[in-house]
Design goal:
By secondary structure, the chain is an alpha+beta fold. It is built from 6 helices and 3 strands, in the order H-H-H-H-E-E-H-H-E. It has 2 domains: 41 residues; 73 residues, DnaA, N-terminal domain (GMP Synthetase, Chain A, domain 3, 2-Layer Sandwich). It has a 3-stranded mixed β-sheet with strand order 1-2-3.
């Protein structure tokens, strides 16, 4: 008795099945994509969502630090949970370092999705 693997008809069926699968992938790849997916990709690639998130970060920072110091500081980016803040002078940097725990708690409460774990201050020009 022959095994099914050795049967030539079975080999042809396997070839036909592979061919059908290949053509199905080709056919479905040409179908139009949902507009929601296209728009989501566009927003992600162009960085439009980052502008909105940056605005929310700025508002949260201004609320945490107060308007007096907000004009002398500028938010950088958030990398690996560390938010970088550029300050106008070393005196302000020292003052903010004393308030670091309170500022961090306020920012974590205002921006829980940002995942801020630490603040890093550095002296630089504010634009």
């Amino acid at each position: 008795m022959k095994s099914r693997k050795d049967d030539p008809a079975n080999e042809q069926f396997g070839d036909l099945e592979r061919r059908r699968t290949s053509h199905r992938k080709w056919f479905y790849a040409k179908r139009p994509k949902p507009i929601g997916n296209v728009l989501a990709q566009l927003v992600q690639r162009r960085g439009y969502a980052q502008v909105r998130v940056a605005g929310e970060r700025d508002e949260a920072w201004q609320a945490a630090v107060g308007e007096e110091w907000a004009t002398m500081t500028q938010i950088g980016g958030i990398r690996r949970g560390v938010m970088e803040v550029t300050v106008a002078n070393s005196l302000l940097m020292q003052e903010l370092t004393f308030c670091k725990e309170k500022l961090l708690a306020d920012l974590q409460q205002a921006l829980p999705e940002a995942g801020i774990k630490q603040l890093r201050f550095r002296v630089g020009q504010i634009s």
